[in-house]
Design a protein that fits this description.
The protein is of the alpha/beta class and 452 residues long. Helix content is 39%, strand content 20%. The chain is built from 15 helices and 22 strands. Helix 4 runs parallel beside helix 5. The chain starts with a strand and ends with a strand.
Length: 452
């Protein structure tokens, strides 16, 4: 399988796909290693995480180059992903002891028992499926908690962006035992085979809601963590501090061509400040730079031309429904596939740019009468990942936190805000379970009680 540079369209590498014989061998190797590893002490787990950190630091330049080439990500943002990846791995060192015995405060005085405690035990083999947009960091959000909690992991990267993780895993496996971290490149059919395989004990999937819920339907009795999509919204209150805010929103919508599951997509503005903010936002969108990732532009290529054609169809649907294109709305280039930063006003609430995940540099702007109407519109979605609220009102802050149906509310920040230690995940069609190293470790373990 050829892997392409997303800007030049040149081949930058090839990957061999695993057949079922190879997959069975990899699963058996993971199973064999797990039998000893599951009861390993915390220092052993720490040692393996330190190997990963060393590999990340030793190959920074190579990893940044691969990330940028195979995703089309601007260089500055690829460097940011590498830095975050190191931080993610270092969090494993912070939390690797969290599976230790925890004493319980249970009243045993009228019993023959003397003590009560519990401990978290690993589930076994984790099958991780990671997306194209953060091929290093989001894979490590599966690998690190798996290792830190005593599991082993088989990880499948996106076929769009397999080279970054393939390089890292090969480097890791020069030092750690075979079976701890195993990578597979395979067809969707064989990925389903692994999902349903009796040797895999937990599935951790990051990607589209359609694929995620399909995976869950295949294994209703197996533990599944789903970190899925969204059409993230912001509400801008009449009390908000507006200095620089339009520029911030434009960047939050168009960075990396909007190919982030918490990119700003729906923008709701209090009617009292709507017209002034609209003009500022139009100007900000017009200032967004597009083009070659090595030039550190904001709006880089889409992952492929299919995504570009889909977005152009959705923009036309919005326009046909009464929406007004304020900025952009057309392809800046088809090869590489670059959509001009696009801002649309209004349109039917049933258009796909309002109801689905765009995964493109497109924002839909609407006025609302007040913060309660803003909350209603944000909640008027099948998704519930994160939302941003800009306000200086304590009343509005509290109301939004209490009433927004999302996994995270970012007050005076964009919905795309994420730190790798925070609990991250969504509700409704955006999935269930939480990532963030400590929280993923909890998902990847089972509590076992002991009374004695």
């Amino acid at each position: 399988m050829k892997v392409l540079d997303k800007y030049s369209n040149k081949t930058i590498g090839t990957i061999d796909l695993d057949d079922r014989i190879i997959i069975e061998q990899k699963l058996q190797q993971a199973t064999d290693f797990y039998q000893n590893y599951k009861l390993s002490d915390s220092q052993t787990r720490k040692k393996y995480i330190e190997v990963i950190i060393s590999c990340l630091k030793a190959h920074k330049n190579k990893l940044v180059e691969l990330i940028s080439q195979e995703t089309g990500k601007p260089i500055f943002y690829a460097k940011s992903e590498l830095d975050r990846s190191i931080r993610t791995a270092e969090l494993g060192l912070k939390y690797f002891n969290k599976t230790a015995i925890q004493e319980l405060d249970i009243d045993l005085k009228d019993t023959s028992f003397k003590e009560s405690f519990y401990r978290r035990f690993p589930v076994g083999i984790v099958f991780g499926i990671s997306p194209f947009n953060f091929p290093l960091n989001l894979a490590l959000h599966k690998i690190i908690p798996a290792i830190a909690s005593g599991n082993v992991i088989l990880i499948k990267p996106s076929p769009y962006t397999p080279l970054t993780l393939d390089f890292l895993v090969k480097e890791i496996n020069q030092t750690v035992p075979k079976g701890l971290v195993t990578i597979t490149h395979c067809s969707n059919e064989n990925a389903e085979f692994i999902v349903k395989h009796p040797k895999t004990n937990l599935i951790s999937f990051t990607g589209s809601d359609q694929v995620g819920w399909h995976i869950k339907s295949l294994v209703p009795k197996k533990k599944v963590i789903l970190e899925l999509g969204g059409n993230a919204a912001v509400y801008i209150d009449e009390s908000a501090e507006l200095t620089g805010l339009a520029t911030k929103i434009a960047k939050a919508t168009t960075l990396f061509a909007g190919q982030i599951c918490i990119s700003t997509q729906r923008i709701f503005v209090h009617e009292h400040i709507y017209e002034d903010f609209k003009e500022a936002l139009i100007a900000a969108f017009k200032q967004v730079t597009s083009g070659n990732p090595i030039d550190n532009v904001t709006n880089s290529p889409l992952i492929d031309e299919v995504h570009l054609r889909r977005l152009l169809d959705w923009i036309k649907e919005a326009e046909d429904s009464g929406g007004k294109i304020l900025v952009g709305g057309q392809a800046q280039s088809t090869q590489p596939p670059i959509l001009a930063p696009t801002l649309i006003e209004g349109g039917s609430s049933s258009i796909k740019l309002f109801t689905e995940e765009a995964f493109g540099p497109v924002g839909v702007l609407n006025a609302v009468r007040d913060y309660e109407a803003g909350a209603y519109q944000i909640n008027n979605s099948k998704y519930g990942l994160q939302a941003g609220v800009f306000t200086t009102s304590a009343k509005v802050k509290d109301y939004m936190f209490d009433h927004l149906d999302v996994g995270g509310v970012i007050i005076n920040g964009i919905p795309g805000f994420r730190k790798d230690e925070m609990p991250y995940g969504g509700i409704k069609d955006s999935g269930f379970g939480r990532e963030g190293i400590l929280y993923a470790m909890e998902e990847m373990t089972e509590i076992k009680l002991c009374i004695r």
